[in-house]
# Entry
Amino acid sequence: MFVPDDAPPFALYCAPYGGLGLRARSFRAARARIDGLLAGAAEVVQTTAELSVFEPAGRALVEDLLGRPIERDTAYAGSGRATLDTTGAVRRADHAHDALAAEAWQRFGAPHTSGARQHRGVFHVEWRWLVEDAAAAAAALDAWSPFVEAHDREMLDDFATRVGVRAIWAARLRVASGLVAAPFPPSSIHAHLRGKHASAFLDLVLPHVAATPAFDADYAAVNQALGITVPRGGYKLNAPKKRGTGRVYKRLPPG
# Structure
C-alpha cells in the first residue's frame, strides 16, 4: 500500500504474513465477508481480478508454458509473460483437459497466462484468467463466481483448492466517525478467495492516532462489516518520519 510522505498520521491495520484468514467455509461465504466490508464504503474501485484453475499436466506442457526447463526442486513457478499462446501449448503437448479445466476453457475462453506446480514429481499447470482493468474487473469476478462456487470443494492438496479467485480493491471506509476521506489514503483489500482457505491482506485506514474510545467505535464498525474480529493489536500508527522522508510504523498508543 502506497502512502504519500505528507499524509497525516493514522491508524493502519496490517494483515499478518500470509494474510488474515477469513474464517469462511466456502467461496460464497468468503466473498460475502469482503462484500460486507465494501458495502458501506465510498470510492470503491476494483483494480484486479484473476481466476485460477489447477489441473494435472505433463512436464512437456509445463515447460512449454514456462518457456524454460523446470528445476527438480521448484515447487511453483509463473510463466513470467503477460500473455501466452496457451491454446498452442496445449496442442503441441497433445494435452487433454480434465473435466474441470475443460469447463473453464469452454466458459471463459483460453486463459491469458499460467503457472506451474510440482510436488514429488507430479506436475500441475495453473490456468490463469487475469483482468487488470478497473472498468472490467468487477464484471469478470461476477462472471466467474458461479463457476468457483460450484467447484470450491475440489482440492489440490490439504491447503489449497483447485479453483479460486484473487481480487484487489481500493476504498474509503465509512465507519462510526464517518467517511475516512482525504487527506487520508484509501484502504486496500487484497483477497485470495479459495473456499475454506480464503484469506485477505487488509490495509485498513482509520483516522486516529491513539486507541481512544472513538478508535474503538470505528474498529468495531469494521469488524461488524467484515463479519469477523480482526486482531486489535494489528493496528499500528503510520506516521511521517520526524527527519527526512518516508513513513514509520509504531505501536498505536493508548488514548
Observations:
- The CA atoms of residues 55 and 152 lie 14 Å apart.
- Helices lie at 27-39, 59-66, 86-92, 99-108, 137-151, 213-226.
